[in-house]
Amino acid sequence: MSKKQIKTTVNGVEHEILVDSTWTLLETLRDQLKLTGTKEGCSNGNCGACTVMIDGKSSCSCLVLAPEINGREVTTVEGLADHGHLSPVQDAFVENSGLQCGFCTPGFMIATTALLNENPHPSETEIRLKLAGNLCRCTGYDKIVRSVQDAAERLSKT
Amino acid sequence: MPNFDYEAPTSLASALELLARAGENRPLVGGTDIIDQLKSNRRHADLVVDLKRVPELLTLKSNGSGLRIGSAVSCTEIHKYTAEKGGFPALSESTELVGSIHIQNRASVGGNVCNAAPSADTIPALIIHEAVAHTASASGGREIPLIDFFAGPGQTVLEKGEILKELTLPAPSKNTASAYLRFIPRNEMDIAVAGVGSLIEVDPTTKVVTKARIALASVAPTPVRAYAAEEFLQGTVIDAAVIDKTADLAVDSAVPITDVRGSAEYRKELIRVLTKRTLNICLERLA
What we know:
The complex is a heterodimer. By secondary structure, chain A is α+β, with helices and mostly antiparallel strands. Chain A contains five helices and five strands, in the order ββαβββαααα. In chain A, strand 1 (3-10) and strand 2 (13-20) form a beta hairpin. The model of chain B has no long low-confidence stretch (mean pLDDT 97). The A-B interface holds A 1-2, 4, 21-24, 43-46, 48, 51, 57-60, 62-65, 67-68, 70, 111, 114-115, 128-130, 132-134 and B 1-6, 8, 28, 30-32, 35-36, 39-40, 48, 50, 52, 76, 99-103, 105-106, 187-189.
């Protein structure tokens, strides 16, 4: 088992850490950096509970090896709020009840943030397509879609 | 996860040197297949070689002679590039079908090819666009027409220490259209029960088909070309009867199995329907 020294920026904070070659980014975030907002669901890329952004692009952190993020910037759900103020995406999920048990919510918020960065005014079809990699077993998705639409509105006013 | 070492070389030469070492050494690009396979013991590695930092594998360029796709370029990048530049609609639509956006952001088309799943969505699109696989190894490299690249489910003709370096696709003529469709039980994020890529080149004055390519996914141990359907279609002026006959011939090239995703009979019927639909989309695109 080999260890790798890596430098990475997580939520704007630089870390120089020793990671095992076989750790996933998800394990490093949760167990090493104690950023437990990112959740482990299926661990094979189907459910999206572990979605983070790597250099701004949404990715399943369960399918990334920790040493791969050397020199990259990672954003997790903990990085969305600004000094304790929820981001417009987070506010929209709260106010539209875009969650029930909350386990999928960090992944959905990251996926939504990445989607709206790329496409500030997605149609409902585009929202459903681009969020198809995030599974929710509580809401039936309608309230999530409304949350994303509201988040797009909020962001267009900022 | 089982034990392995990890290296991220920054030149093709050092990547090839690492992969040629003794042991089971596996290239990694997006990791969306290989990491899951390592976790679940479906593939084994002593050393994982991350190729994303090798500049020679990150080419994405087109010119008058065609398109060059480095094996480490992501589906998202290829989708955006081809959607904007045009010319390869089947490839553009298939790169948007591989898993979710989170998968497409990481997964490369090169990896989709080398993972060699019979159901891989980008492969029929590449085959109908006459992609050639350019390989690299310490002893040189080979050029392999993509249809000859596959040896079985999850298996390619690559030898130890040899990697896919890039795919080249010749520039299609103006009068060419292509389309890829797959069938899945939901709208997105699933593995093709069956898939069909079609490409036709039609003489704008006589309307005669001057070139036809049809490739099938998920109906054989490897991606297949429907040669008889292609030969029949070439030289015809397309009408409903020609499309029906072409679809019948495409079905004859499918040798599917029955599994959890669908029965052999169902898959054959899907090939018939998807062949017709892709040809009709091609005609719309030419109109």
